[in-house]
Amino acid sequence: MAQPTIVWKFPTGGIDTLSALPKLAAKILITVLIGGFLGATLVRLAPGFGVDEGELDARLSDRSIQALRETRANEPNLFLFYFRYLSRLLHGDLGTSRTLQRPVLQLVDERLPETLKSVALGLALGWSAGFLLAVAVVMSRAWLLDLLGSLLVGVLLCLPAAVLAMLFVLAQAPARLLLGLVVFPKIFRYSRNLLARSSALPHVLTARAKGLGNMRVLVWHVLPTAAPQFLALLGVTVSVAFTAAIPMEALCDIPGIGQLAWKAALGRDAALLVNLTMIVTLVTLVANSASDMMGKTFRASEP
Amino acid sequence: MKKALASFVLLTLIALGSNRLLAQSGGELRFCLRSEPKTLNPLLAADDASETVRYLTGGVLVRVNRLTQELEAELATSWKVTNAGKTITFQLRNGLRFSDGTPFSADDVAYTMQQLMDPALHSPTGDAFRSSEGKVETEVLPKGRVRITFPAPIAGLERLFDQVAIMSAKSPQKELAVLGPYFVGENKAGSYLILKRNPNYWEKDPSGRPLPYIESVRLDVQQNRDIEMLRLTRGEIHFINSLDAEYFDKVVAQDPSMAHDAGASLDSEEMWFNQVASSPLPSYKKAWFTSTNFRQAISESINREDIARIVFRGHARPAVGPVSPANKLWFNAKLQARPFDQKSALQRLAQDGFHLQDGVLRDRAGHAVEFSVITNAGNKYREHMATMIQQDLSGIGIKLNVVTLDFPSLIERITDTFDYEACLLGLVNDELDPNAQMTVWLSSADSHQWNPSQKTPATAWEAEIDKLMRAQASTLDPKKRKADFDKVQEIAWQQEPFIYLVNKNALSAVSPAVHNAHPVVLRPQVYWNIDQLSLTSEVARNR
Amino acid sequence: MKWARTTAIVFLLAVSAACLLANVIAPASYAHQFREEPNVSPSRQHLLGTDDLGRDRFSRVLYGTRVSLLLAPAAALLSSLLAAFVGGIAGFAGGRLERCVMAGTDLFLSLPWLFLLITVRALLPLNVSPMVSVLITFAMLGCLGWAGAARIICADARALAQSDFILLARASGSTGFRLLWRHLVPNLKPVLYAQFWISVPVFILTEANLGILGLGVAEPLPSWGSLLRELEGFAGISGQPWQLVPLILFILVVSSFHLVLTKEELPV
């Protein structure tokens, strides 16, 4: 029996790849800048921007409270703020956090590795568990396994993050793995449905009818068909993981940028929030663009 | 009789001595901070975490003993207040050094005062000394003395120095060179701080052993109270300085010896109505809120006993007024908490033309009495209090809408836009002296929450309070001050600008591994005598 | 699986009926505080005990189910439809439109929407009714929750646009909206169902967490989210298993939704 041939198509010619990258980089840069500006807008327009908890401190004199208020009033309007921010950015200065009284660059430098660790671990766990379970469900065609998988996912989706965090702490398990439980349901659910649909395609049924084993069917027929969607899912889960890191780090007191973002949000810290928004936008765009590019390189064909 | 007394003294000495014998040097004390310190500069410390670090590292001239509430000598061996309360002279200890070895002298006190009184410095510590406009003069006198003169008298002046950590004028380490029992050894931002024993700390125990006993203190940044609680039960931390009522009961259930209830704290929870004339409220609501009868009726309709019993699980007591009964020196013992009496409340409201119609309370013009109370979201106790008040007020036909807001939004409403009707918040009192509440009671002040920054007092009773607060601040006669402040409390009780709800108890949990801990009401409740705390020998050996 | 699906349908109908008839079934008002009985165990008078303020938990579960069961699926439907619309059209059209829409989607995913929610709360009058507040919350969640799924749907739509049956449909003269609606959308259903099913519990939990911003249900109106908040912290492990009933009900309802939708998916 002839083996099916998979053709992995890469962008034609080095010149095409090279010319695509600067365009992509420019697109990412513009989107990140727009993201930063929109983030700044949202913060500036939110109620409570420009106030400080210190204003409620009864130990402060009226002069001190006025001085606190004047510090806020000195902050320029939105466009000026963003323009000054970009000018400083060109010199490598990300500004100073008002809530933590430290340079933003220092804060990000300290905390980004923690978040990256958590996200990496979380994605590794989520994808391994979610994808493998989905594969097992689809290839085994066991309704009981499907039901149990769905129940597990249902339980995980329904458990509040604070309860999950508590369970982790009780079990003395690393809190970073909590992110894995956050992305696992999405990965399992989408993977299961994508694989199930791909498995029902005519060429897969034909391959099965011809006596190909499960593993061969999976690797040579099912996965390539669904590859672009899986890659899109991968990109999305990166951004989901980053977003989920915010409450997770706040709950478990992990000093990452998620916790920083939460504090910045509660303190209306514009300098910090603009930078964090841009980081998250950059990560999201890079992850999704990478998954798009990889998706476009796959093309499966059969002789 | 003499024999009995001698025996008692002997036993006491033995007990004290054995305590010391048991007190092993070494070990690491661990507890949690609720947030990371915003600053390590002691003059700028305003948040809890920064104040904790300041307390543990800062050397002060005098210290308020949190147990006895009396002033004790620290870096100063004696002090004298003269010039009608405008001048204070300290006699400093000789031969002391900062943690980095820099010698301590009166110049350092002068330097610290100069930094503290810098007009550009806006901190609670500095503001406490700003009695009026004018320069503060600090003179370095011979024989290790320093004299500080203020432009106007400051009542309770000496006690304010409990908050002033002396900084070195010469040390290259700046604020990191300290005179307290510990210095900052390691600081992982957002994660933990490790404070190490100050080798140059001046104090020794009665047997001549250098203090502190404990080698180091680890402060973990832990916002999650559940995790903090779990860590205590696992022995990962040694105490929780300020415990919520719900967790207190869990500690009691687990190990009653760990749980400490020091009684009513200085803090209070209260509700107030917006009485700002320029607020964007409809005029009929402004009329309600500015009516004394209305406020008194609302106060009488709230069941404080239930709030103390249910929300705080019995670890609170109905509040009387601006001063907690824990403040024995200043509390007006003649006042009682308003009893829960809805019949009386309705009678009061009737005096202002309110009437019940089909179970709904209406004002003279027929408006149904409905208003909202804002409080900060995420505080379970305040949300519960508001919900209980909601049910209480429904008993007299009032519809209360509970609105929880995130803190910045709430602050904006109560300090800037005044777009709110009622607010439920708490007042944290660190100080016993009524001067600490000056900015709350003066009608011109920003912290006069119900109607801040008045150009002239809006009501006669607020004018009276202004007069009384200024009078008590400008005299050194303790009897006169007490009489004046008693009157302020009476007016506050009568007029109910703040409807005081409860005074929470000072609850803490301390591991049996910690010796000589005597949790008290004043902050810091547990580690106020940090230099005399010790850990059990097993713990010390393991560290 | 047929029996499982039937059981799920019956269960959902029973729960819906119970919460619609809450006014009749509930032994007490969801707001009434039995102040002498806070945190009591289940009894004849209080089938699931009472909460911290002495409110009958069973009554609160009934009324809370009404709020969440009605609003969360509606919000999930809204977000799924928006995701289908945006992702479907972008993927189907391809080219520059797809690239622009996906860039916009990525941007949408990254922005701190927390502030929009806070701003909406600020714009609402303080005396707005709890029901209106929760309606607005869920509507906002529906409007904001589409971006993640849109990406996957776009990739799916892109792949489907090249498939044989679409080519055949085009060859038969089907174009534009008709092509999209009759041929593309039905094949996007697996992804849409996954999105819908995941969104329901996520929105319920998000509504609970938004309480920290003053959004979501206002006291005394219960919702599943506010009932689940009881489980946070030590309360969840306090040895009072009846407190888990809202969570168990939540899991069963969400799982039942899944089982009901399973029939529409391609057979394994």
Largest interface: A-C, 66 and 58 residues
**Strand-residue proportion of chain A:** under 5%
Q: Characterize the biggest β-sheet of chain A.
A: 2 strands, antiparallel
Q: What's the main sheet of chain C like?
A: none
Q: Give the neighbour order of strands across the main sheet of chain A.
A: 1-2
Number of helices of chain A: 11
As residue ranges, the low-confidence spans of chain C are: 264-268
Describe the structure.
The complex is a heterotrimer of chains A (303), B (543) and C (268). With 303 residues, chain A is mainly α. Helix content of chain A is 76%, strand content 2%. Chain A has helices at residues 13-45, 62-73, 78-90, 104-140, 143-158, 161-170, 178-199, 202-209, 214-252, 257-267, 270-297, and strands at residues 6-8, 298-300. Chain A has a two-stranded antiparallel ribbon with strand order 1-2. Chain A starts with 5 loop residues before the first strand and ends with a strand. Chain B has 543 residues and is α+β, with helices and mostly antiparallel strands. Helix content of chain B is 32%, strand content 21%. In chain B, strands 11, 12, 13, 14, 17, 18, 19 and 20 form an 8-stranded mixed sheet that branches. The model of chain B is unreliable at 13-23 and 538-543 (pLDDT under 50). The longest helix of chain B is centred in the N-terminal third of the chain and has 21 residues, at 2-22. The relative contact order of chain B is 0.15. Chain B contains 17 helices and 22 strands. By secondary structure, chain C is mainly α. In chain C, α3 (57-93) runs antiparallel to α4. Chains A and B meet through α2, α4, α6, α9 and α10 of A and α6 and α13 of B.
